[in-house]
Amino acid sequence: MPLVESGGRPSDRRAVRRAGYTGDFRMAVVSAKQLSSDELMRRSFGTDSHVTLDCCCCSFIVKCFCPSELTANHKARLFSILEKNMKEFYMNSSWGWNGSAKFEELFATDSRLLLCFLTNLKTCCDSGLHDVTPPLPTSPDEPCAFVHFRFEVDTQRPVLYCYEIQLLEEVRGLKLGQKLLHILYKVAAINQMTRVILTVFRFNYPAYTFFTKNGFKTDTSDPSRYGQSVDYAILSRLP
């Protein structure tokens, strides 16, 4: 089953960022950043509470939060999922693992977080892909997946930058990751972002494959386009 973790962002963007902060680009990003979580959901989906996702074996709701709206328990839960999924990849990368820095990045003021909660476990798989409905050891109060994104200006473009898309192992293989990406596409399009962009470790083959299968291609800011040899890729696609 595919993993769907992105790899955060490069810590040093000097080699790949040639930012041109023109007024038009900045205004789209500033406008999106000023929206509250409720306003963002209302503008994108016509609701200020949640988005419902129906998967083959279960149903989920997805809610949007600013870091200041999260409880300490939710923050601990999200970081635990991130650390479990990604710590080894970071330790094997040129970046290394810095838990404190990652925590600060995840819950920075500009961050937006989509939290996914299990709402219904079906008695059988709608698609026939699973002979038995997989056990999902998570309560309705605990997020089983999340997305960390921000609105940014990147190389003269207003973009939605996906820092993380993390799923518990128990909810992989249900096309949940793909459905979460589609939420990002709509949020990006409605808020006039020109690209959805992310960073993924090249050696994280399941994640890299997942993103390319979902239409992501090497971005113009990727260091490999300029002769640099790095262990991560910057991918993007139209919303």
UniProtKB/TrEMBL annotation:
Keywords carried by this UniProt record: Acyltransferase, Cytoplasm, Nucleus, Transferase
Cell compartment(s), UniProt: Cytoplasm; Nucleus
Domain N-acetyltransferase, chain residue ranges per copy: 141-216
Main location: cytoplasm
Domain of life of the native organism: Eukaryota
Catalytic reaction annotation: N-terminal L-seryl-[histone H4] + acetyl-CoA = N-terminal N(alpha)-acetyl-L-seryl-[histone H4] + CoA + H(+); N-terminal L-seryl-[histone H2A] + acetyl-CoA = N-terminal N(alpha)-acetyl-L-seryl-[histone H2A] + CoA + H(+)
Xref: Gene3D superfamilies: 3.40.630.30
EC number of this enzyme: 2.3.1.257
A cellular-component GO term for this protein: cytoplasm
Pfam families documented for this protein: Acetyltransf_1 (PF00583)
A single GO molecular function term of this UniProt record: histone H4 acetyltransferase activity
InterPro entries referenced in this protein's UniProt entry, alphabetically: Acyl_CoA_acyltransferase, GNAT_dom, NAA40
Record has Calcium as a keyword: no
Family: Belongs to the acetyltransferase family. NAA40 subfamily.
Protein name: N-alpha-acetyltransferase 40
The organism of origin for this protein: Taenia asiatica (Asian tapeworm)
